[in-house]
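User: Sequence in, structure out. Go.
Assistant: Echoing your sequence, followed by the C-alpha coordinates.
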Amino acid sequence: MVKGPLSGVVVLDLTHMLAGPYCTSILYNLGARIIKVERPNGGDESRLFTPFIEGESAFFSALNHGKQSIVLDIKSDIKDKAIFEKLIRQADVLVENFRPGVLPRIGYDENKLEELNPALIVARISGFGKTGPESMRACYDLIAQGVSGLMSIIGENAMTQPLKAGVELGDLAGGFFSAIGICAALFDRTRTGKGNRIGTSLVDCLTALMVEPFSRYSVDGKVPKPSGAQHVAIVPFDVFMAKDKAIIICAATDALFALLCKSLGKAALAKNSKFSNNEARLKHREELTHRMNELLKTKTAQDWLDIFAKNGVPSGPVNTIADVFREPQIQYRKMIAHFSQHDMPDVKFPGNPIKFSHYPDINEYPRGPKLNEHNDEIRAWLDDREK
Protein backbone atom coordinates (compact mmCIF):
# COMPACT_ATOMS: atom_id res chain seq x y z
CA MET A 1 0.00 0.00 0.00
CA VAL A 2 1.15 3.51 -0.74
CA LYS A 3 1.84 6.01 2.03
CA GLY A 4 -0.39 9.05 2.06
CA PRO A 5 -2.73 11.24 4.12
CA LEU A 6 -5.35 8.46 4.21
CA SER A 7 -2.95 5.81 5.53
CA GLY A 8 -4.80 3.71 8.11
CA VAL A 9 -8.22 4.33 6.54
CA VAL A 10 -10.00 1.10 5.55
CA VAL A 11 -12.37 1.28 2.60
CA LEU A 12 -14.86 -1.49 1.87
CA ASP A 13 -15.26 -1.41 -1.90
CA LEU A 14 -18.46 -2.95 -3.27
CA THR A 15 -18.13 -1.19 -6.61
CA HIS A 16 -17.81 -2.45 -10.17
CA MET A 17 -17.18 -1.23 -13.70
CA LEU A 18 -15.73 2.33 -13.72
CA ALA A 19 -17.25 5.11 -11.58
CA GLY A 20 -16.97 3.32 -8.22
CA PRO A 21 -13.58 1.70 -8.82
CA TYR A 22 -12.21 5.04 -10.03
CA CYS A 23 -13.33 6.60 -6.74
CA THR A 24 -11.62 3.92 -4.67
CA SER A 25 -8.48 4.04 -6.82
CA ILE A 26 -8.19 7.73 -5.90
CA LEU A 27 -8.53 6.79 -2.23
CA TYR A 28 -5.85 4.10 -2.67
CA ASN A 29 -3.50 6.65 -4.22
CA LEU A 30 -4.05 8.79 -1.13
CA GLY A 31 -2.98 5.93 1.13
CA ALA A 32 -6.20 4.08 2.05
CA ARG A 33 -6.45 0.30 2.23
CA ILE A 34 -9.07 -0.87 -0.27
CA ILE A 35 -10.79 -4.21 0.33
CA LYS A 36 -12.73 -5.07 -2.82
CA VAL A 37 -15.70 -7.33 -2.11
CA GLU A 38 -16.58 -9.14 -5.34
CA ARG A 39 -19.55 -11.27 -6.27
CA PRO A 40 -19.21 -15.01 -6.94
CA ASN A 41 -19.11 -16.24 -10.55
CA GLY A 42 -16.63 -13.79 -12.01
CA GLY A 43 -16.40 -10.77 -9.73
CA ASP A 44 -16.29 -7.25 -11.17
CA GLU A 45 -17.59 -7.32 -14.76
CA SER A 46 -14.68 -5.18 -15.91
CA ARG A 47 -12.40 -8.22 -15.43
CA LEU A 48 -13.75 -9.25 -18.85
CA PHE A 49 -12.67 -6.06 -20.62
CA THR A 50 -9.97 -6.42 -23.25
CA PRO A 51 -7.02 -6.35 -23.76
CA PHE A 52 -5.71 -9.20 -21.61
CA ILE A 53 -2.16 -9.78 -20.39
CA GLU A 54 -1.30 -13.08 -18.72
CA GLY A 55 -5.03 -13.82 -18.61
CA GLU A 56 -5.87 -10.59 -16.72
CA SER A 57 -7.71 -7.50 -17.99
CA ALA A 58 -5.27 -4.61 -18.36
CA PHE A 59 -8.14 -2.16 -17.81
CA PHE A 60 -9.30 -3.85 -14.61
CA SER A 61 -5.79 -4.11 -13.21
CA ALA A 62 -5.00 -0.47 -13.94
CA LEU A 63 -8.25 0.77 -12.40
CA ASN A 64 -7.96 -1.48 -9.35
CA HIS A 65 -4.21 -1.28 -8.73
CA GLY A 66 -3.13 -2.02 -5.18
CA LYS A 67 -6.56 -3.17 -3.97
CA GLN A 68 -7.27 -6.46 -2.20
CA SER A 69 -9.94 -8.89 -3.43
CA ILE A 70 -12.26 -11.18 -1.50
CA VAL A 71 -15.26 -13.02 -2.96
CA LEU A 72 -18.39 -13.03 -0.79
CA ASP A 73 -21.98 -13.99 -1.52
CA ILE A 74 -23.64 -11.29 0.58
CA LYS A 75 -27.07 -12.03 -0.85
CA SER A 76 -27.65 -15.57 0.38
CA ASP A 77 -24.64 -17.22 2.05
CA ILE A 78 -24.94 -16.94 5.84
CA LYS A 79 -21.23 -17.47 6.51
CA ASP A 80 -20.24 -14.93 3.86
CA LYS A 81 -22.73 -12.42 5.29
CA ALA A 82 -21.09 -12.86 8.69
CA ILE A 83 -17.67 -12.07 7.18
CA PHE A 84 -19.16 -9.08 5.39
CA GLU A 85 -20.60 -7.75 8.64
CA LYS A 86 -17.22 -8.12 10.32
CA LEU A 87 -15.75 -6.05 7.48
CA ILE A 88 -18.40 -3.35 8.00
CA ARG A 89 -17.54 -3.17 11.69
CA GLN A 90 -13.84 -2.67 10.90
CA ALA A 91 -14.20 -0.31 7.94
CA ASP A 92 -14.10 3.47 7.90
CA VAL A 93 -15.81 3.82 4.53
CA LEU A 94 -18.14 1.73 2.39
CA VAL A 95 -18.46 2.61 -1.30
CA GLU A 96 -21.09 1.09 -3.59
CA ASN A 97 -22.52 1.81 -7.03
CA PHE A 98 -25.48 -0.54 -7.17
CA ARG A 99 -28.84 0.72 -8.34
CA PRO A 100 -30.67 2.50 -5.50
CA GLY A 101 -32.27 0.02 -3.11
CA VAL A 102 -30.07 -3.01 -3.77
CA LEU A 103 -28.29 -3.09 -0.39
CA PRO A 104 -31.52 -2.64 1.63
CA ARG A 105 -33.14 -5.50 -0.31
CA ILE A 106 -30.40 -7.90 0.80
CA GLY A 107 -30.60 -6.83 4.42
CA TYR A 108 -28.30 -3.82 4.71
CA ASP A 109 -30.52 -0.78 5.05
CA GLU A 110 -29.59 2.36 6.97
CA ASN A 111 -30.65 0.91 10.32
CA LYS A 112 -28.53 -2.21 9.85
CA LEU A 113 -25.45 -0.27 8.79
CA GLU A 114 -25.89 2.11 11.72
CA GLU A 115 -26.22 -0.85 14.09
CA LEU A 116 -23.05 -2.50 12.76
CA ASN A 117 -20.91 0.65 12.66
CA PRO A 118 -22.25 4.06 13.75
CA ALA A 119 -19.06 5.77 12.54
CA LEU A 120 -19.21 4.23 9.05
CA ILE A 121 -19.15 6.60 6.06
CA VAL A 122 -21.25 5.28 3.18
CA ALA A 123 -20.79 6.66 -0.33
CA ARG A 124 -23.27 5.73 -3.03
CA ILE A 125 -22.68 6.42 -6.71
CA SER A 126 -25.60 5.96 -9.11
CA GLY A 127 -26.72 7.06 -12.53
CA PHE A 128 -29.48 9.51 -11.64
CA GLY A 129 -29.25 9.70 -7.85
CA LYS A 130 -31.03 8.04 -4.95
CA THR A 131 -34.04 10.39 -5.11
CA GLY A 132 -36.12 12.03 -7.82
CA PRO A 133 -38.49 10.85 -10.58
CA GLU A 134 -35.72 9.17 -12.61
CA SER A 135 -33.82 7.61 -9.71
CA MET A 136 -34.58 4.00 -10.68
CA ARG A 137 -33.69 4.36 -14.36
CA ALA A 138 -30.70 2.45 -15.66
CA CYS A 139 -27.87 4.76 -16.62
CA TYR A 140 -24.51 4.47 -18.33
CA ASP A 141 -21.93 7.15 -18.95
CA LEU A 142 -23.20 7.85 -22.48
CA ILE A 143 -26.71 8.48 -21.16
CA ALA A 144 -25.37 10.82 -18.48
CA GLN A 145 -23.44 12.77 -21.11
CA GLY A 146 -26.68 13.21 -23.05
CA VAL A 147 -28.94 14.12 -20.12
CA SER A 148 -26.47 16.65 -18.67
CA GLY A 149 -26.25 18.56 -21.96
CA LEU A 150 -22.58 17.77 -22.45
CA MET A 151 -23.07 16.00 -25.79
CA SER A 152 -25.00 18.96 -27.18
CA ILE A 153 -21.86 21.13 -27.10
CA ILE A 154 -19.35 18.56 -28.38
CA GLY A 155 -18.68 18.54 -32.11
CA GLU A 156 -17.33 20.60 -34.97
CA ASN A 157 -20.49 22.69 -35.40
CA ALA A 158 -24.24 22.70 -34.89
CA MET A 159 -24.80 20.59 -38.02
CA THR A 160 -22.75 17.61 -36.85
CA GLN A 161 -24.14 14.59 -35.02
CA PRO A 162 -23.79 14.85 -31.22
CA LEU A 163 -20.56 13.31 -29.96
CA LYS A 164 -19.48 11.91 -26.61
CA ALA A 165 -16.32 12.95 -24.80
CA GLY A 166 -13.35 10.79 -25.71
CA VAL A 167 -13.29 9.26 -22.21
CA GLU A 168 -16.14 8.18 -19.90
CA LEU A 169 -16.32 11.61 -18.33
CA GLY A 170 -19.52 10.95 -16.37
CA ASP A 171 -18.10 7.87 -14.68
CA LEU A 172 -14.84 9.64 -13.94
CA ALA A 173 -16.58 12.75 -12.59
CA GLY A 174 -18.78 10.54 -10.40
CA GLY A 175 -15.65 8.89 -9.06
CA PHE A 176 -13.69 12.00 -8.20
CA PHE A 177 -16.64 13.95 -6.75
CA SER A 178 -17.35 10.94 -4.53
CA ALA A 179 -13.73 10.80 -3.41
CA ILE A 180 -13.92 14.49 -2.47
CA GLY A 181 -17.09 13.82 -0.49
CA ILE A 182 -15.48 10.89 1.33
CA CYS A 183 -12.45 12.95 2.33
CA ALA A 184 -14.76 15.69 3.62
CA ALA A 185 -16.80 13.14 5.59
CA LEU A 186 -13.64 11.68 7.13
CA PHE A 187 -12.65 15.17 8.28
CA ASP A 188 -16.14 15.84 9.60
CA ARG A 189 -16.02 12.60 11.58
CA THR A 190 -12.94 13.81 13.46
CA ARG A 191 -15.15 16.59 14.89
CA THR A 192 -18.47 14.78 15.35
CA GLY A 193 -17.45 11.14 15.78
CA LYS A 194 -20.29 10.23 13.44
CA GLY A 195 -20.40 8.69 10.01
CA ASN A 196 -22.19 10.24 7.07
CA ARG A 197 -24.07 9.26 3.93
CA ILE A 198 -22.79 10.61 0.61
CA GLY A 199 -24.79 10.44 -2.58
CA THR A 200 -23.49 11.32 -6.05
CA SER A 201 -24.78 10.52 -9.51
CA LEU A 202 -23.22 10.56 -12.95
CA VAL A 203 -25.84 13.04 -14.18
CA ASP A 204 -25.36 15.36 -11.18
CA CYS A 205 -21.58 15.31 -11.50
CA LEU A 206 -21.55 16.06 -15.23
CA THR A 207 -24.14 18.78 -14.71
CA ALA A 208 -21.85 20.33 -12.10
CA LEU A 209 -19.14 20.68 -14.75
CA MET A 210 -21.34 22.75 -17.08
CA VAL A 211 -20.48 26.11 -15.49
CA GLU A 212 -19.65 28.08 -18.64
CA PRO A 213 -22.58 27.01 -20.86
CA PHE A 214 -25.05 27.38 -17.98
CA SER A 215 -23.97 30.93 -17.18
CA ARG A 216 -23.92 31.91 -20.84
CA TYR A 217 -27.40 30.54 -21.55
CA SER A 218 -28.88 32.12 -18.41
CA VAL A 219 -27.67 35.56 -19.53
CA ASP A 220 -28.28 35.65 -23.28
CA GLY A 221 -30.96 32.95 -23.65
CA LYS A 222 -29.15 31.41 -26.63
CA VAL A 223 -28.80 27.63 -26.53
CA PRO A 224 -25.04 26.81 -26.67
CA LYS A 225 -24.02 24.82 -29.73
CA PRO A 226 -20.92 22.79 -30.61
CA SER A 227 -18.00 24.99 -31.57
CA GLY A 228 -15.18 22.55 -32.28
CA ALA A 229 -12.01 23.40 -30.40
CA GLN A 230 -12.49 27.16 -30.51
CA HIS A 231 -13.46 29.21 -27.47
CA VAL A 232 -16.88 30.77 -27.86
CA ALA A 233 -15.88 34.09 -26.26
CA ILE A 234 -12.13 34.50 -26.90
CA VAL A 235 -10.24 34.84 -30.20
CA PRO A 236 -7.72 33.42 -31.00
CA PHE A 237 -8.19 30.47 -28.66
CA ASP A 238 -8.28 27.44 -30.91
CA VAL A 239 -6.47 24.67 -32.77
CA PHE A 240 -4.51 25.83 -35.83
CA MET A 241 -2.59 24.00 -38.54
CA ALA A 242 1.17 24.33 -38.77
CA LYS A 243 3.21 22.92 -41.65
CA ASP A 244 3.11 19.35 -40.38
CA LYS A 245 0.39 19.08 -37.73
CA ALA A 246 -2.04 20.92 -35.48
CA ILE A 247 -1.07 23.12 -32.55
CA ILE A 248 -3.04 24.98 -29.88
CA ILE A 249 -2.78 28.74 -29.41
CA CYS A 250 -4.50 30.51 -26.51
CA ALA A 251 -4.10 34.29 -26.78
CA ALA A 252 -6.62 35.08 -24.04
CA THR A 253 -5.86 38.83 -23.71
CA ASP A 254 -5.00 41.73 -25.99
CA ALA A 255 -1.47 41.74 -24.58
CA LEU A 256 -1.03 38.05 -25.43
CA PHE A 257 -2.43 38.65 -28.90
CA ALA A 258 0.20 41.34 -29.44
CA LEU A 259 2.92 38.86 -28.38
CA LEU A 260 1.44 36.31 -30.77
CA CYS A 261 1.51 38.75 -33.69
CA LYS A 262 5.12 39.64 -32.87
CA SER A 263 6.01 35.94 -32.79
CA LEU A 264 4.36 35.44 -36.16
CA GLY A 265 6.42 38.29 -37.61
CA LYS A 266 3.32 40.44 -38.06
CA ALA A 267 3.40 42.86 -35.12
CA ALA A 268 1.25 45.38 -37.03
CA LEU A 269 -1.63 42.91 -37.08
CA ALA A 270 -2.31 43.63 -33.40
CA LYS A 271 -2.99 47.29 -34.26
CA ASN A 272 -5.39 46.51 -37.11
CA SER A 273 -8.83 47.80 -36.11
CA LYS A 274 -10.37 44.41 -37.03
CA PHE A 275 -8.18 42.64 -34.47
CA SER A 276 -7.09 45.24 -31.93
CA ASN A 277 -9.35 43.94 -29.16
CA ASN A 278 -11.22 40.75 -28.40
CA GLU A 279 -14.63 42.12 -29.36
CA ALA A 280 -13.30 43.02 -32.80
CA ARG A 281 -11.56 39.66 -33.15
CA LEU A 282 -14.81 37.85 -32.33
CA LYS A 283 -16.53 39.69 -35.20
CA HIS A 284 -13.71 38.87 -37.60
CA ARG A 285 -12.83 35.39 -36.29
CA GLU A 286 -12.98 33.70 -39.70
CA GLU A 287 -10.67 36.20 -41.39
CA LEU A 288 -8.16 36.14 -38.52
CA THR A 289 -8.16 32.33 -38.42
CA HIS A 290 -7.48 32.18 -42.16
CA ARG A 291 -4.59 34.66 -41.90
CA MET A 292 -3.08 32.81 -38.96
CA ASN A 293 -3.26 29.44 -40.71
CA GLU A 294 -1.52 30.94 -43.76
CA LEU A 295 1.31 32.19 -41.54
CA LEU A 296 1.54 29.05 -39.42
CA LYS A 297 1.89 26.66 -42.36
CA THR A 298 5.30 28.14 -43.14
CA LYS A 299 6.95 26.33 -40.20
CA THR A 300 6.62 23.02 -38.38
CA ALA A 301 4.58 22.73 -35.22
CA GLN A 302 7.68 22.31 -33.07
CA ASP A 303 9.34 25.35 -34.64
CA TRP A 304 6.32 27.48 -33.75
CA LEU A 305 6.00 26.02 -30.27
CA ASP A 306 9.63 26.89 -29.57
CA ILE A 307 9.09 30.47 -30.78
CA PHE A 308 5.88 30.87 -28.78
CA ALA A 309 7.46 29.47 -25.61
CA LYS A 310 10.37 31.89 -25.94
CA ASN A 311 7.99 34.84 -26.33
CA GLY A 312 5.50 33.81 -23.64
CA VAL A 313 2.61 32.93 -25.92
CA PRO A 314 0.44 30.16 -24.39
CA SER A 315 0.55 27.24 -26.82
CA GLY A 316 0.87 23.49 -26.94
CA PRO A 317 0.82 20.39 -29.13
CA VAL A 318 -2.15 18.18 -29.93
CA ASN A 319 -0.61 14.98 -28.62
CA THR A 320 -1.57 11.44 -29.49
CA ILE A 321 -1.55 8.96 -26.62
CA ALA A 322 1.84 7.78 -27.85
CA ASP A 323 3.07 11.38 -27.70
CA VAL A 324 1.77 11.71 -24.14
CA PHE A 325 3.87 8.72 -23.08
CA ARG A 326 6.95 10.57 -24.36
CA GLU A 327 6.04 14.06 -23.09
CA PRO A 328 8.93 15.20 -20.83
CA GLN A 329 6.75 17.23 -18.45
CA ILE A 330 4.30 14.36 -17.96
CA GLN A 331 7.17 11.93 -17.38
CA TYR A 332 8.83 14.28 -14.90
CA ARG A 333 5.57 14.60 -12.96
CA LYS A 334 5.33 10.78 -12.76
CA MET A 335 2.00 10.74 -14.56
CA ILE A 336 2.79 7.57 -16.53
CA ALA A 337 2.38 4.81 -13.97
CA HIS A 338 3.23 1.13 -14.27
CA PHE A 339 3.05 -2.02 -12.18
CA SER A 340 5.77 -3.14 -9.81
CA GLN A 341 5.21 -6.82 -10.69
CA HIS A 342 6.71 -8.28 -13.83
CA ASP A 343 3.66 -10.26 -14.98
CA MET A 344 2.04 -7.18 -16.57
CA PRO A 345 5.06 -5.17 -17.73
CA ASP A 346 3.48 -3.44 -20.72
CA VAL A 347 0.47 -1.90 -18.99
CA LYS A 348 0.65 1.84 -18.38
CA PHE A 349 -1.99 3.94 -16.65
CA PRO A 350 -2.31 7.50 -15.33
CA GLY A 351 -0.41 8.33 -12.16
CA ASN A 352 -1.66 10.27 -9.14
CA PRO A 353 -2.13 13.97 -10.06
CA ILE A 354 -2.25 15.02 -6.38
CA LYS A 355 1.25 15.75 -5.06
CA PHE A 356 2.05 16.05 -1.34
CA SER A 357 5.14 17.56 0.20
CA HIS A 358 5.22 15.01 3.04
CA TYR A 359 4.55 11.84 1.04
CA PRO A 360 6.49 10.21 -1.80
CA ASP A 361 5.51 10.92 -5.38
CA ILE A 362 5.49 7.49 -7.06
CA ASN A 363 4.63 6.00 -10.41
CA GLU A 364 5.05 2.29 -9.62
CA TYR A 365 2.07 0.48 -8.09
CA PRO A 366 1.01 -3.10 -7.29
CA ARG A 367 -1.17 -4.60 -10.02
CA GLY A 368 -4.89 -5.12 -9.62
CA PRO A 369 -5.85 -8.18 -7.56
CA LYS A 370 -6.64 -11.57 -8.98
CA LEU A 371 -10.17 -12.64 -8.09
CA ASN A 372 -10.33 -13.64 -4.38
CA GLU A 373 -6.55 -13.30 -4.14
CA HIS A 374 -6.60 -11.91 -0.60
CA ASN A 375 -9.33 -14.09 0.91
CA ASP A 376 -7.08 -15.73 3.52
CA GLU A 377 -5.21 -12.50 4.35
CA ILE A 378 -8.40 -10.52 4.90
CA ARG A 379 -10.02 -13.21 7.03
CA ALA A 380 -6.89 -13.48 9.18
CA TRP A 381 -6.83 -9.69 9.57
CA LEU A 382 -10.48 -9.70 10.67
CA ASP A 383 -9.85 -12.44 13.24
CA ASP A 384 -6.90 -10.46 14.62
CA ARG A 385 -8.92 -7.21 14.79
CA GLU A 386 -11.86 -8.83 16.58
CA LYS A 387 -9.82 -10.63 19.27
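User: And one key feature?
Assistant: The chain has two domains: 10-209+334-385, 237-323.
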